[in-house]
Amino acid sequence: MSEPVIEQLLATTGLDELYPVVASLRMTPGWHKKRPSLWKEPRTEFRPLHWRYDVGRAALDQAGRWIGTDLAERRNYLLFNPVGDNDYDTVRTLVVAFQMIKPGEYARAHRHTPNAMRLILDAGPGCYTVVDGIKLPMRTGDFLLTPGGCWHSHYNEGEASAYWIDVLDVPLVHLLEPMFFEDHPDRSQKVVAEPAGHPFYFPPQRTLPALAAAPGDDGVQRLTLETAQHIPTVDISLLKFAAGTGRDFGRNTASRVFAVVAGRGTARIGELTAQWARGDVIAVPSWSPYEIRAHEDAVLLEVCDEPVLRKLGFYREGARPEAPEHSHPSDEAFES
Fold first, then answer.
1. What would the pLDDT profile of 135-166 be if each residue is shown by its tens digit?
2. Global model pTM greater than 0.90
3. Which CATH architecture has domain 213-334?
4. For the Cupin type-2 domain, which residue ranges apply (predicted)?
5. Which class is domain 53-204?
């Protein structure tokens, strides 16, 4: 005797009767999908976006009146892309945040699967992070790594609030689902070493001379930081633009974010034109054409997921689409 479900299938007299039966079995006819599953070129709901540091800093200062690190694990603002109900991801694989710690505060220790990195915007003596017992300074212009699985906590023993930009690959971990998180059993770590140099620590005294010595191309220089052995999911680079120079980067399948280390300029990403300044954050989703021009000497930090796409064979570059016939309202911003 046939199973009831097979009898139900065989009893259907047409497609209109068949579809609800197979749907109840959690099967979708490939010819009758609700939405396409393949398309001619990459597309994304993520939007090019620009966040200003002066706005983020003011918002952090205001929150600091009412919320401390005793109440919030981290006092930060996540820079999210308005995709559906998303209030976390900045681009598909990366999340960026502005964070602040006040004098006398510490952010308790924890560890997690995602990798993290930090660009320090404004911080003086006495601000530092501890990564697996290693004490690393957090001063203006510093860039630091916190590879996945490392205990990390932040301290401010100085006299002024400290501000920085966090970049993490949490959304990538969400997509792949290998997430682990753990609070430190003692809430804080014991400092076991305070080295003069460390592979997780990139001070401007080290990076900027190397960037200045990097080969230039039409006024733009690039220094790729040696971070792959510690954080293999992203490439991290510093880009230096001479005043009045810029570049059309075309588009590619990687997602990326930029943080402005110094200078001012204009970015055009897809339909977005943004005037950027020090401390600002710019999101460039996958397959978005983007162009960056500096109005004064400038340095930008770039974090992108290109290594993941290359490893999987998904990385591809494409030319920038032809400009529309109508003029862009901010074209004058690109005049040198």
1. 999 999 999 999 999 999 999 999 999 999 99
2. yes
3. Sandwich (2.60)
4. 98-167
5. mainly beta
